[in-house]
Amino acid sequence: MPEIEHVPADYDSNCKAANGALFGKYELGKLLGCGAFAKVYHARDVRTNQSVAIKIISKKKINVNLMSNIKREISIMRRLNHRHIVKLHEVLASKTKIYFVVEFAKGGELFARVAKGRFSEDLSRKYFQQLISAVGYCHSRGVYHRDLKPENLLIDENGNLKVSDFGLSALTDQIRTDGLLHTLCGTPAYVAPEILSKKGYDGAKVDIWSCGVILFVLTAGYLPFNDPNLMAMYKKIYKGEFRCPKWMSNDLKRLLNRLLHINPNTRITVDQILGDPWFRRGGVKEIKFHDDENAAVPDKTGKEGFGARNLNAFDIISFSSGLDLSGLFDTSGNSFENNTGERFISRESPDNLLETVTEFAKVEKLRLKTKKEWGVELEEQNGNFIIGVDVYRLTEELVVVEANRRAGDTACYTEVWKSNLRPQLLVRQQEASVSGNH
């Protein structure tokens, strides 16, 4: 259990309950780390006695861009449920602070361990297998981390790896019409060469590159691309200039050369990694890329169709009108609904709702993009606007329909969604409700 401090410096007294715990739930312990905008504390859940980590962010210290990253991190972490990814338990907020309550990794950062000396190939393989399991899972969910490094890999009490810090992650929604991401981000020594070219990049392929750098660091004890001069280091990365130390096995050297291949089109993929001789040596435990709890749920007819993701408790809280997470961050007082987005609950099946959207797109001559598990996007032929429509299963009988403007003119979004498509979906909802009452 953590050593309990009486009142940490950034503890918000307005959130202190009669039992002295934060929001009546968490007893804060020692400081684990701090940065320019946040502090992380070890804490204890007074109801379950479970250890957690709480990241406390001061709203006064963050700008619009950082706020956007925080919102994205919450959106991403709530859809991830994997044994090698740090779990987000809940998000709390006061007038001045935001509190991330996450799984506590007792072993700390992987970086601190490798800083003491390189690992054996067997231990490196164990962590690399767990890393690839987590990364492959993220990619299957349309999530690209974009800042993988040993500092963002934590170790739990059982010695297993946990990927953390999704603040710079990207979603499939951010991919442009050229099929690529364009935001320049990441830690210099771990960025892929295609990011440096500024011509756009595939999020999955840059994550694989970073995994290659991590594997090199674990087994060599130092970075493959390093130079006191940042531009000189970037030049080495761009050209793929690195050397494997003599003590590495030939199979490992071959894998590293495929991971750190400068051409993203011919760089090794997750599926190919799974079949690599070095990766498979000693036997490979089940590598799971899909979350069974969030699989497509058949409707009453037994069809899976588009499917709808089951919502966990955190999702339900974040979708609740009284506890809409957007209100935790928006200092202007604008709600999700006022920010060209809307959610409503329906008794209609996901298949029927998305069928209505599909028929609407045909009639209105809109481009329709189907996104596995999540829903669809409607794009005007000239690219004037993009509307996203997602369906989530709340219970066996209820679903949440979420729509928002993802690009383009607000007036066009209002006309197409609020004046035309939304009424059609609500009619289906009313018909389903009437049918259900008979």
From TrEMBL:
<dbReference type="InterPro" id="IPR004041">
    <property type="entry name" value="NAF_dom"/>
</dbReference>
<dbReference type="InterPro" id="IPR000719">
    <property type="entry name" value="Prot_kinase_dom"/>
</dbReference>
<keyword id="KW-0464">Manganese</keyword>
<keyword id="KW-0067">ATP-binding</keyword>
<dbReference type="GO" id="GO:0007165">
    <property type="term" value="P:signal transduction"/>
</dbReference>
<feature type="binding site">
    <location>
        <position position="55"/>
    </location>
    <ligand>
        <name>ATP</name>
    </ligand>
</feature>
<dbReference type="GO" id="GO:0005524">
    <property type="term" value="F:ATP binding"/>
</dbReference>
<feature type="domain" description="Protein kinase">
    <location>
        <begin position="26"/>
        <end position="279"/>
    </location>
</feature>
<dbReference type="Pfam" id="PF03822">
    <property type="entry name" value="NAF"/>
</dbReference>
<dbReference type="InterPro" id="IPR017441">
    <property type="entry name" value="Protein_kinase_ATP_BS"/>
</dbReference>
<dbReference type="InterPro" id="IPR008271">
    <property type="entry name" value="Ser/Thr_kinase_AS"/>
</dbReference>
<protein>
    <recommendedName>
        <fullName>non-specific serine/threonine protein kinase</fullName>
        <ecNumber>2.7.11.1</ecNumber>
    </recommendedName>
</protein>
<dbReference type="GO" id="GO:0004674">
    <property type="term" value="F:protein serine/threonine kinase activity"/>
</dbReference>
<keyword id="KW-0723">Serine/threonine-protein kinase</keyword>
<dbReference type="InterPro" id="IPR018451">
    <property type="entry name" value="NAF/FISL_domain"/>
</dbReference>
<keyword id="KW-0547">Nucleotide-binding</keyword>
<comment type="similarity">
    <text>Belongs to the protein kinase superfamily. CAMK Ser/Thr protein kinase family. SNF1 subfamily.</text>
</comment>
<dbReference type="InterPro" id="IPR011009">
    <property type="entry name" value="Kinase-like_dom_sf"/>
</dbReference>
<keyword id="KW-0808">Transferase</keyword>
<keyword id="KW-0418">Kinase</keyword>
<feature type="domain" description="NAF">
    <location>
        <begin position="306"/>
        <end position="330"/>
    </location>
</feature>
<dbReference type="Pfam" id="PF00069">
    <property type="entry name" value="Pkinase"/>
</dbReference>
